[in-house]
């Protein structure tokens, strides 16, 4: 009983210290894009928060779980104006629910991030910018990028890296087709096959050997669910984890 009381005292003391002079924020997560990684975001945020506040203290989190099929319809039609409007409506809903800032728990929608940042009713945290900053911290120079076909083909991921003198290498056209197919026929649905993991690792190994990549961006928030550890003596940049660490930093430090 004394141990329980001691733990409760620590919790109260830490929260009092945290709240003193600060206004508690509410985190907005625009998720569902896909569902598996949204669950991972929640766990990562709680875990990252408790790495600083070791006792049982938890942030306020509001999650809007959007329909990934609607997202992919906009993407398939190259309807970027429609996608922006659709995402802005979700961000407005999070604002009305009380969120103070929003993170989109998916890489692909960041193709319209610059427009969203200008028009959104709340501050937005970019997964691309957070990952680029992490790459700079690690002094990486020639990074492989794996994600949806749109993420690998478009330049929205490459631009901030290139601006900071970092090269981005993408898989071959055939490899991109394989990755995209595995993502939407298996991984997005929570299906994790050893054969698919081996396939993705084989692509990574080829990029290490032929393209001399010094790291790999897991540029789809579902990829860390199947590529759970780094290989071939290069770091795998878990964009979900990096994004969540930034979310917690903003929550705690403002």
Distance between the termini: 36 Å
In DSSP terms (H or I, runs of 4 or more residues), the helix count works out at: 11
Second CATH tier, the architecture of the largest domain: 3-Layer(aba) Sandwich
Shape field: globular
Tally of domains = 2
DSSP strand content: 5-15%
List keywords for this structure.
254 residues; Rossmann fold; 2 domains; four-stranded parallel beta sheet; 8 strands; disordered N terminus
Indicate the topology.
Blueprint: H1 2-19, E1 26-31, H2 35-52, E2 60-65, H3 68-76, H4 80-97, E3 101-104, H5 113-119, E4 124-125, H6 127-137, E5 142-146, H7 149-153, H8 158-163, E6 167-169, H9 173-185, H10 194-211, E7 215-218, E8 236-238, H11 239-253
Helix pairs in contact: 2-11, 6-11
Describe this structure in words.
- With 254 residues, the protein is of the alpha/beta class.
- Helices cover 54% and strands 13% of the residues.
- The chain has eleven helices and eight strands.
- The protein has helices spanning 2-19, 35-52, 68-76, 80-97, 113-119, 127-137, 149-153, 158-163, 173-185, 194-211, 239-253; strands at residues 26-31, 60-65, 101-104, 124-125, 142-146, 167-169, 215-218, 236-238.
- Helix 5 links the parallel strand 3 and strand 4 (124-125).
- The longest helix is centred in the N-terminal third of the chain and has 18 residues, at 2-19.
- The protein starts with a helix and ends with a helix.
- Residues 1-21 have low confidence and may be disordered.
